[in-house]
C-alpha cells in the first residue's frame, strides 16, 4: 500500500479539499486497471481487435514507453481482406468469335425470310428447286448491276429502277441463296452479308452518291465474305 502524506490532502486556498496522488502512483493505478481488464477479457475468450491493440500498447509501455509494434499498429486496417469491387468483378470481356456467330445467326434468322413451316427444306443439293434458287440469286445480282449502272431503263435522274438495282443483292440475291439447303459455312457468310449490306448501302451515299458504286461495294463484300468463309484462297494440302 502507498502512504499518502497529510500535506497532499490538506485543503488550501487554491484547491479546497483536494486530494491528489503523485504522477507515478496514478500511472501505476491506471496500468493495473488496464491489465486487469485485459486479463478479464482473455479469460472470457474475447479476441477483438480492441483487446489485441490494448495488449500491444501495454506491452509497449512496459518496454520503455514505446507504442505498439508496426505490424500490430497496422493490423486493424490489414486484417480485413478487401473484396473486389463490383466494377472489377464484372469487367466486360470482349465477345468471342463463337458469340458473334450466335448473335449474327439469331439476328438473321429473326429478320431474314424463312420457311413458314417447320418441315425439312426441300431445296437440297441436286434438286431442281436448289438450282432455281441458285440461278435466281445470281441472275438478280447481274440484273441489279445493269440497273445500277443505268444500262436498263436509262434515266438522267435517280429513279426506282436504279434504287432497286442498288438493293438487289440484299433484297433478292441473299434471300434466294439462303433459301437453299446450303453448307454451314455458306449459311454463315450469307448471315453476315444480310447484316453488312444494309450498312454499306446506308453509309456510302453520305460520301459518294452513286448507285453503281454502292452496288459494286455490295458485290465486293459478297465476294470477300464468300472467300473468307468458304476458304477460296486457302492452300489445300
Number of helices: 12
Order of helices and strands: HHHHHHHHHHHH
- The rounded distance between the terminal residues' Cα atoms is 103 Å
Total number of strands: 0
Relative strand content: under 5%
What is Rg?
44 Å
Helix content: 55-70%
Shape: elongated
Number of domains: 2
- Class based on secondary structure composition and strand pairing: mainly alpha
- Low-pLDDT stretches: 4-21, 70-81
Q: What value does the average pLDDT take? A: 74
Largest sheet descriptor: none
What key attributes describe this structure?
single chain, elongated, 0% strand, RPH1, 237 residues, membrane, mainly alpha, 2 domains, 12 helices, transmembrane
Question: Short summary of the structure?
Answer:
The protein is an all-alpha fold and 237 residues long. Helix content is 61%, strand content 0%.
Walkthrough of the structure:
- This protein is an all-alpha fold.
- The chain is elongated and about 110 Å long.
- The chain has two domains: 6-75, no CATH class; 97-230, no CATH class.
- It has helices at 6-9, 23-43, 49-62, 70-73, 75-78, 86-89, 97-111, 128-148, 160-166, 168-178, 184-203, 211-230.
- 61% of the residues lie in helices and 0% in strands.
- The protein is built from twelve helices and no strands.
Amino acid at each position: 500500500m502507498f502512504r499518502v502524506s497529510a500535506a497532499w490532502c490538506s485543503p488550501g486556498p487554491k484547491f479546497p479539499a483536494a486530494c491528489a496522488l503523485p504522477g507515478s502512483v496514478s500511472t501505476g493505478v491506471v496500468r493495473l486497471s488496464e491489465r486487469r481488464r485485459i486479463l478479464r477479457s482473455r479469460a472470457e475468450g474475447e479476441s477483438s481487435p480492441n483487446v489485441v491493440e490494448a495488449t500491444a500498447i501495454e506491452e509497449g509501455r512496459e518496454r520503455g514507453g514505446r507504442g505498439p509494434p508496426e505490424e500490430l499498429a497496422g493490423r486493424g486496417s490489414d486484417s480485413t481482406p478487401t473484396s473486389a469491387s463490383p466494377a472489377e468483378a464484372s469487367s466486360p470481356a470482349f465477345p468471342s468469335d463463337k458469340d458473334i456467330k450466335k448473335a449474327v445467326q439469331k439476328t438473321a434468322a429473326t429478320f431474314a425470310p424463312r420457311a413458314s413451316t417447320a418441315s425439312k427444306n426441300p431445296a437440297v443439293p441436286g434438286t431442281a428447286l436448289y438450282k432455281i434458287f441458285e440461278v435466281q440469286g445470281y441472275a438478280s445480282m447481274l440484273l441489279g448491276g445493269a440497273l445500277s449502272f443505268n444500262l436498263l431503263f436509262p434515266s438522267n435522274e435517280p429513279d426506282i429502277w436504279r434504287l432497286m438495282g442498288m438493293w438487289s443483292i440484299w433484297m433478292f440475291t441473299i434471300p434466294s441463296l439462303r433459301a437453299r439447303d446450303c453448307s454451314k459455312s455458306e449459311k454463315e457468310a450469307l448471315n453476315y452479308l444480310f447484316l453488312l449490306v444494309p450498312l454499306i448501302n446506308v453509309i456510302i451515299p453520305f460520301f459518294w452518291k452513286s448507285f453503281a458504286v454502292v452496288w459494286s461495294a455490295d458485290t465486293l463484300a459478297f465476294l470477300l465474305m464468300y472467300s473468307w468463309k468458304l476458304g477460296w484462297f486457302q492452300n489445300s494440302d
